[in-house]
């Protein structure tokens, strides 16, 4: 707990001619444990104000008196330059009885027992001041890997429970030395109340294990030895901020290949760690936005186009046009990179499909066979946080995976949501996140993963419990996806039954669109939008699998107006792992049972397909045996990628679609206007976008030997153009009931080529286009949409229905 | 066969087909009920086990068996997995008008052979012929009684952490044999149904390990479903090794093509036993020594957490939750 901070010694006297005022100021937002009180203290000193500042359950309060203009300046300074980790939602000023000139000085009030102290910030990359200390020629934190201050360092990754005090973090095991304590207690110091504050005398200890040919004594510099290992092509197990990484020299093909073999990760691109922007510029072109994103305190992985000028080892990102780079997220990474002339592969330290390791023992046990050396430290990682992934789409940043550096930052929902009761939404199945909604804010968990994995399931339940405690959250309703077999849904249904909570079932694509609305701050009672939800697949209201949907939707309701023409998925989930099956399903639909036509398929893929048990697959399709129908757009990408020979089977999710995007020939794309034809018709009471003519044209191109890159470009162009035409048709149909806005959601929109083409198509029509920015377009954002829909429905009784 | 109202023709049919095949004194008496001396039952055990099941398989004849054999073995097995000695069965048959008499004879003879093999008597029965379209060819309904020997306490809720999970043989044979036999999927696969009585095997198992905690035959819903039932009832976790599950290559191959998981295929001769670790090896040896357990395997163990769940460990990827399915196997990947 706090002790009384020293009173500020002298307050410069203001001229007695100016009017003096007294105010109570209330600051709300993420304002505790982020250095707001010391900032107010310093500003009060600067502007000659007297009074006090403190924390309470609602945030930060300030009692201030002094010259009116100076009080304004203090408030203005808080607004315009809050502490880096703070988020100020509102500043409310109320006049209060002026106090006599006898009261002078400004002090920081002690925290009161029972005070909330619940706010926990996201982990933040090393600030400029700390970085300066790290590489200063002298100073007690020179070269110290755990340097941090109020403006940077670990936060949620080390928190065990609330209140957010050192004792409730994994720094609790390290008692501050007198020098650190002095900083901690001094409001003028940048480390005032920095809970993880420490130094080499009192902080965590870093060491290297396993490396051959070295003594393991504590006197050896572990970072220098880790660098030696990396230079020698070794694989390093590296304990990071929110979990372990496996690192190796990204310019060393042998090292990268060895890492792929040992980790059993054949294709999925590896993330990269660079020392600085200069190092990244050797390999990628970097826009101003890109620089900003990389240098953001979240230190995310940014997908950047390769320039081709210099190349990394081919195994880093096979078949990709992008590299995913991040800058050092913590002092340890700065120190490690400072001595290296090459970027590192820095991939999550896990067994494939498993969550990242966070405990030293687990990491040793699981990854001992993968790594040659391990750079470890003795502070526990409490909460697992994968690296966040960001991409620039259509010139603007979009988060693809939201975890370290962004969570648990709440997302403010439009005002009207404040009246909704607390809710818990359990999200999707793969790329799972959950979402707590309370007081008009949505707290989205970090990316958790595939819930059918046992360890991920454990992590899900632990995180859920932690978040409920952290945000003091007692849900009144539970929102789940409609899929009967989602683990998240089963967990949610059981929870609702056990705690007698209302259960809201939200259709997958409605949730996607609602997530996009919430991401864009669309008000609760706004007119419906035309939602275009393109993804892998989600359970539809008719029991088939949707994934290429046009919905007239607001938060409460969604009406399916149109979809892609459905095709069977021969072999169910197997067909998702084997895109060649989707290719066959399409060819079967286009050419029927004419096997000879299939055999005439040109190229290697035709030969491959001819060797498959096509008779059985055709019968499965014809009889509907384990071949549910899907209107998925993502599966269409899979099929095209397979037919043009890019990807028959996948080893990671989204592989085929990523390969297809990466393959697009930019000249052919820029030419435009040469897209494949799609047909739009009416079937089953819905408008349908049918790919049959596209397939005929595509196969004709293949027969003529057209390059894959051109085929991929024509596919993207044609698809965007067809979706645009579908929007024209539906726009006419929904008429007055439609806001004229289009919302784009679903994993397919992480494809930058399609997104940009489509956004251009729609803007050309004068339509307002909403895209995902703060929350992933894929199932990582699903829980936000579920929460928004459930909240809107619970509030519905107060208003009328919607949707014309 | 024609649809009638219980007259002379019907009686002849019953006499002709059923009585001759099932020949036993209780049935031959032609009373409206079988009369069984209680003393016989009391010798065999101290509790009565009583079960019932309906059989509607399509096709009626398939590699490795037919509906008649299934109807006897299924009910015998439902009795056997309580530890009971199966003794008497009833047999109700519903026939669609026009069903070939030769096929009926074949099925009934097959029932008789199965009863003989399992050491049970079919002591009462009933036959109805319904109009065309009112039933699909032929349905059989069997009930059975048996006696549970004193001291045998087998229940799904008795699984305890530390126990071992044993299965008696290959899984998925029946499911694949039926799929192949339907013929509409163009599957050429030499797999026979595993339909067989398990009472002999259960007896051998109990002799070797009287403290068996749980037993169940993995019929509809397959191995995955039985393990989930155990996990839920006992509030424990069933953890097994993917590579330890006995599955024939042919079954694996067909599953690969169809995109189905063998863990969910129906079986007609697969037994899952949860036994205390102390007698697990003896139990496994006893099963392997029995013809119905030649391929028996220890596939995993009962653990405490995550309670109520089934976890499959695979070579490198760690554990996956194997759920009880609400419906069919549906794709979940978005
Ligand atoms: Fe989705
Ligand atoms: Mg049964
Ligand atoms: Zn700092
Ligand atoms: Zn210190």
Write a short abstract of this structure.
With 804 residues, chain A is α/β, with parallel strands linked by helices.
Protein described:
The complex is a heterodimer of chains A (804) and B (334). Chain A is an alpha/beta fold. Chain A is built from 25 helices and 30 strands. In chain A, strands 6-13-7-8-12-9-11-10-14-15 form a ten-stranded mixed β-sheet, with helices on both faces. In chain A, strand 27 and strand 28 form a beta hairpin. Chain A starts with 19 loop residues before the first strand and ends in an 8-residue tail after the last helix. Chain B is an alpha+beta fold. Chain B folds into two domains: 141 residues, PurM-like, N-terminal domain (60s Ribosomal Protein L30, Chain: A), CATH 3.30.1330.10; 166 residues, Phosphoribosyl-aminoimidazole Synthetase, Chain A, domain 2. In chain B, the strands form three sheets. A seven-stranded mixed β-sheet of chain B has the order 8-10-7-11-9-12-13. A four-stranded mixed β-sheet of chain B has the order 1-6-4-5. Chain B has a two-stranded antiparallel sheet with strand order 2-3. The longest helix of chain B is centred in the first third of the chain and has 18 residues. Chain B starts with 7 loop residues before the first helix and ends in a 13-residue tail after the last strand. The interface between A and B is large, with 53 and 29 residues. The structure holds fe (iii) ion, magnesium ion and zinc ion (ZN) (2 copies). The site of magnesium ion (MG) has 4 residues of chain B, from helix 4. Chain A: This is Carbamoyltransferase HypF. Chain A: InterPro entries: Acylphosphatase-like_dom, Acylphosphatase-like_dom_sf, Carbamoyltrans_HypF-like, Carbamoyltransferase_HypF, DHBP_synth_RibB-like_a/b_dom, HypF_C, HypF_C_2, Sua5-like_dom.
